[in-house]
Amino acid sequence: VHVVRDPRGVVNSLLKVGRRARQKGLRPAPQTASLRGAIEYTRKCVEAGFAAAAKMPQRIHTLVYERLVSAPEQESRMLCAFLGLEWSDQMMRPSAHRLPGEWALTVGSDEVWYTPEEYRRDPETRSVETWRDDLTRLQQAAIANAFGDMREYERLGYTLEASSGARLINSITDFLVSLPYQIRHGAASTLRSVRH
Q1: Second label for 66, Cα 20 to 30 Å away, from 33, 78, 181, 187?
Q2: Distances (CA, A) of 92 to 71, 149, 174
């Protein structure tokens, strides 16, 4: 099962985890520590999922997160049919059940990833677009730019238009990251030409 969510929502959630870790005096996981780390991690994960779905479409079910929370019964019924499982209306009320792995992802992780209340939350659409308020416009543009070339998102109904501002920021960032190499390489070229 490949769960796909708007990458701005995914990155926003990862950054929230990083902030919670810092507030608790903990070192955040690399994919939660910075915008770049969250983007790179998310892209790596969705690329793997999309590649698997392309190679084995009969074995991979792509589940769109926003559809799941807005139409949980319909989406969970389709997922159960794909998996060959019997659907139950208890799936609509996860808050009524203790779930496997709950302790590890809540109390066991110092509640950095989830609080018990968040983990057991019933499907709801309230948090689907919190990224619009939580992320700056520049962050939103940088994320859209990083994922805008992935046509799979478009096919799933997402609009990820990269802005010229985000492209400029990425170009500047790439230049600054490569600057030490360029300086060393340029200095070496200069030394070689002086020797000859």
Answers
A1: 33
A2: 10, 35, 45
